[in-house]
Amino acid sequence: MPSYIVTCKKDATDDQVAAAKKHAEDQGGKIGHEYKLIKGFSVSFPKDSVSTMESHEHVEAVEEDKEMKTQ
User: Fold this and answer.
1) From residue 21, how far is each of 1, 41, 71 by CA, in Å?
2) I need a labelling partner for 10 at 20 to 30 A (CA). Which of 16, 20, 59, 70 fits?
3) Is the Cβ–Cβ distance between 39 and 9 less than 8 Å?
4) Please, where are the H alpha helices in the chain?
């Protein structure tokens, strides 16, 4: 299953972040890592299920978790 980084809105409360994680799990996702510097987490999803996260009210962005390079 592909892995994604879910970033919650900056003004999301801890309860709202927890609601987003529960939504991910309810949609078949498996939470990987919880981030402390940003309000977000990684989640592994079946490819066809990730679009449900993008429409969640407390989610700012969903992007595929992949290697980044700097110059």
Assistant:
1) 17, 8, 33
2) 70
3) yes
4) 14-26, 51-54
User: What does the pLDDT read at residue 50?
Assistant: 64
39 contacts 8 by C-beta, under 8 angstroms: yes
Could you tell me the residue ranges of all domains in the chain? 3-64
DSSP state for residue 58 in the 8-state scheme: T
pLDDT in tens, 12-70: 999 999 999 999 999 889 999 999 889 999 999 876 666 678 888 999 998 888 877 78
43, 3 contact by CB (below 8 A): yes
Paired strand residues for 34:
41
Phi, then psi, of 2 in degrees rounded to 5: -65, 150
Give the architecture-level CATH label for domain 3-64. 2-Layer Sandwich (3.30)
Instruction: Provide the token pair at 8.
Output: 């919650």
